[in-house]
Amino acid sequence: MTNANALPPSKRPALLWGLVCLVMAAALLILLPQSRLNSSVLAMLPKQAMGDIPPALNDGFMQRLDRQLVWLVSPGKEANPRVAQEWLTLLQKSAALGDIKGPMDAASQQAWGAFFWQHRNGLIDPDTRARLQNGGEAQAKWILSQLYSAFSGVSGKELQNDPLMLMRGSQLAMAKNGQRLRLMDGWLVTQDPQGNYWYLLHGELAGSSFDMQQTHQLITTLNTLEKALKTRYPQAQLLSRGTVFYSDYASQQAKQDISTLGVATLLGVILLIVAVFRSLRPLLLCVISIGIGALAGTAATLLIFGELHLMTLVMSMSVIGISADYTLYYLTERMVHGNDVSPWQSLAKVRNALLLALLTTVAAQ
């Protein structure tokens, strides 16, 4: 005896597919609060082999690097730290920036020296390392040359605490490699070939570098502060560097591309479906098909990687038209032969063509 309340076999695949979609939607709702939208350009770089360094340490280093900001302020051809001090004062007013460093006070210089003194054995420069090889006779001769040089200024305390002069060697190597930077009035200063003085400042983002709205607001604020600096000092020049500038440009460009591609693709699909089928029902079916695909892709990406990069959205927008083609193939088949065959028979007729199109699209991507 047949149960009248039993679900017909033809409806069971639809019910199963509906349950799968509900599970994916529930998974997406759970994953979204724990995920982030990544707009950093550093995340697009290939992973570098870091030897035995733990991945967590490497990720922390990359995140800190993503927050770094560096400025070079030039007052012109005459040294004038007031211009750099003005820029430092303007930066300190921004709540989005933290740990802004300009001139080095006595405590900072002492801390800098204490760090190199404490780790002098691990900071041996290549020249000292080469002199210490083969018994260290070359290092002994170099120490004697420093002792008898009238310009070295070797003190008895230095020789007693550091008889191999490891710290002196590392400092001389640093001065040799970075000789264009020198300390003037507590500032790190350099000069370009045109004779302009440049003062170095450093800062970090106070918040996360993945917050696109906060990052764009910071860039807008920095542009406003730069205009204020040049209003007071018209001759001033400013150079800014940091991954946040590139990330903001990439995110804004991606937003523009998403809007352009999204509108163009949507209008194209609507016009094509309305012109061919003269009905909004195929359009609704096409939207549902693309929406389920986007739901599955987003849920899978967040489940595996825990984040979604902004460039992934841009690339996904470019394949919406291709995704709509699969629905159109099936709907065209139903429009022509819908009265003669069942929906499953129509699907069987276009299955091979759809699979071939899918394989070529995946291979092209």
From TrEMBL:
Keyword Transmembrane: yes
Gene Ontology, cellular component aspect: plasma membrane
Cellular compartment(s): Cell membrane
Sequence ranges assigned to domain Membrane transport protein MMPL in this UniProt record: 251-329
Classification via InterPro entries: MMPL_dom (IPR004869), Mycobact_MmpL (IPR050545)
Membrane-spanning intervals of the chain: 258-277, 284-305, 311-331
Key words of the record: Cell membrane, Membrane, Transmembrane, Transmembrane helix
Membrane topology qualifier: Multi-pass membrane protein
Keyword Transmembrane helix: yes
Source superkingdom: Bacteria
Protein name: Putative transporter
